[in-house]
Amino acid sequence: MSVELLATSIADRAYDRIRTDIVFGRLAPGARLRLDRLATAYGASVSTLREILSRLSSEGLVLAEGQRGFRVSPVSPAGFEDVAAMRLLLETYAMPLSFAAGDLEWESRVVAAHYKLAVLERRMMAGDRDGTELWKRYDREFHQVLIEACDSQTLLDLYGGVFDQYLRYQMVAIVFRGEIAAEEHKILLDCALARDADRACEVLTRHVNGCVASTLESGVLR
Q: Which DSSP helix (H) or strand (E) runs through 70?
């Protein structure tokens, strides 16, 4: 491997790890991102880390504070409501397109994604919270698969970035609505297989707004 490719590979791995650690709350909202400590933790040079953090700043996950450096973007109730509204805007636009275009292979991916999510939800409802991060990964996968047949990579890329910001709020609050959310996911599955986009959008709106309301009521974001 050439020096240039090796440097790119190191930078890409560091970017993926830092981004994942922010989204899943391992780097807490508002935390100062000291380059020397990040260099040790992620095995990348200070100059590479500056580029990575600047990139994450453009994604809204990091704040660049001039001479003071970088920190993880803070969270707030208003911020969560804003991100949730954008998620709904994109997802309810993409869902009818995906339902109309999805084929048998798409249906099989929807069913498989829901199966994994439902298993984790049952474990969570039984009191097992060790798989919280995996639960949210499967939640993201299910919603992503529902709209992946929309035939717009630009839309999917925008949605992925917004969903990750939404997910970060969820990981900070860890609000699990149990049977309510699980039932809404089951209805979304049924709607996808029946190609009932209108009902799916109604259920999705209730699903997201219910999560936002529960999160704000918990007071964690204040």
A: strand 70-72
Beta bridge partners of 70: 33, 64
pTM: 0.87
Please write the tens of the pLDDT for every residue from 73-82: 999 999 999 9
The DSSP secondary structure of 130-187, one letter per residue, reads TTHHHHHHHHHHHHHHHHGGGS-HHHHHHHHHHHHHHHHHHHHH----THHHHHHHHH
pLDDT digits (tens, 9 = 90+) for 143-169: 999 999 999 999 999 999 999 999 999
Residue 202 CA to residue 205 CA, distance in Å, equals 5
Q: Which of 63, 35, 36, 62 is nearest to 50 (CA)?
A: 35
Q: From residue 12, how far is each of 38, 188, 205 by CA, in Å?
A: 14, 35, 35
